Amino acid sequence: LSLRLDFTKQGPTVDLDGITGSIAGEKVTGSVHLDQSGAKTRFSLIGSAGSVSLPSLLGVLVAWHRTPSTEEMLGAVGANTSEVWPLRGFSLGLIEKVEGGITLEAKTLALGSAVKLEDAALTASVGKDALAVTSLKGRLFGGDFAASGSLAPRGNGAELAARAEVKGGKLGELAESVTGSPLARGPFDLAFDVQGEGLSPPGVVSG
Question: DSSP for 30-59?
Fold first, then answer.
């Protein structure tokens, strides 16, 4: 971790401007604004990076403090959970305490072990007790990818609603990412809607 930034604090507001440096060897730039004058902390985050993992970004919404026995009791961790998304239950209290916007650009944004979005641009916001991804665009499997969705607290877990599509994709790139070999060739278009609830990120993804 190596970062440089300009720090300014005036009353309840904090600004971190001109952020440059590297995290885990990846170049990052950006800025952060925080305003703690209201009931909720308002924020604005703008950043860019060479490579980013979406599961890692969502780590702030995971209950890392829970013990394995607690996870088993809640049923948050199953036998067939993903190897990429955190094997812990949700902790979405942060969503209810802040509101603001996020703008992120990345040369590569990993959505999963075999799904990596190139030239990604993400726009998201936190408000009305939900995390909303208003736009996620980039290149996937040789085609144009676009998605949007929301994540909202539901009891001890969360509810996910998302829509995504790939236009002009290449079957060879899709097959190679999954099997390691371009077993099929030709163009494809794909669109799907996802809705589910779960106590953990893998639970929401699988359910």
Answer: EEEEEE-SSSSEEEEEEEEEEEEEHHHHGG
Give residue 133's identity as a one-letter amino acid code: V
Measured in degrees and rounded to the nearest 5, phi and psi for residue 56 equal: -70, -40
Please tell me which residue, 77 or 188, carries the higher pLDDT value. 188
Distance CA 73, CA 192 (A): 33
- Tens of pLDDT along 15-66? 999 999 987 677 899 999 999 999 999 999 999 999 888 877 777 777 655 5
Write down the residue that tokens 């609603």 correspond to.
161
- d(Cα 66, Cα 74) in Å, to the nearest integer? 10
Nearest Cα to Cα of residue 188 among 174, 170, 172: 170
Report which of 68, 95, 80, 85 is spatially closest to residue 154, judged by C-alpha positions. Answer: 95
Residue-level pLDDT at 78: 40
Residues contacting residue 186 through CB under 8 Å, at least 6 positions apart? 170, 171, 172
Cα 76 from Cα 84, distance rounded (Å): 15
pLDDT tens, residue by residue, 145-156: 999 999 888 877
DSSP state letter for 81: -
What's the whole-model pTM score? 0.81
**Both tokens of residue 162?**
């998302």
